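name: query_chain
kind: protein
chains: 1
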Amino acid sequence: MFEQFTKEARGVVVDAQTVARSLHTRTIDTRHLVVALCESDGLEGVAGRGRGARKHIPFTPDAKKTLELSLREAIRLGSKGINSGHLLLGILRSRTPATPVVEEALRTAGVDAPALRTAAEQQSRPA
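structure:
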């Protein structure tokens, strides 16, 4: 599936591994993807940090589900690749242990989740 990710979306996934490593966790979960996406330079401006020859950290089932939902969102929107907007849509669509944390963070930030989803869909549609 990763061959379908844009450079920016791959950067988010690599950054999620860096986040997990910095927190000394043995797996990457959806929360790490959320942090990496939030720390990116906008939805399509990720520069991918932490690319080294370190041992791969596996994804948890919830992170795998989020990535699968990102693929489904890309297909639904008629995109040829999975971009960081699709990652956001996968996160918003997933029901994982990270969901309450994401929802609370959005509320605290004053972000309307349906409006965010609509904006991400518009940004992620092919031109």
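note: The chain is about 60% helix and 0% strand.
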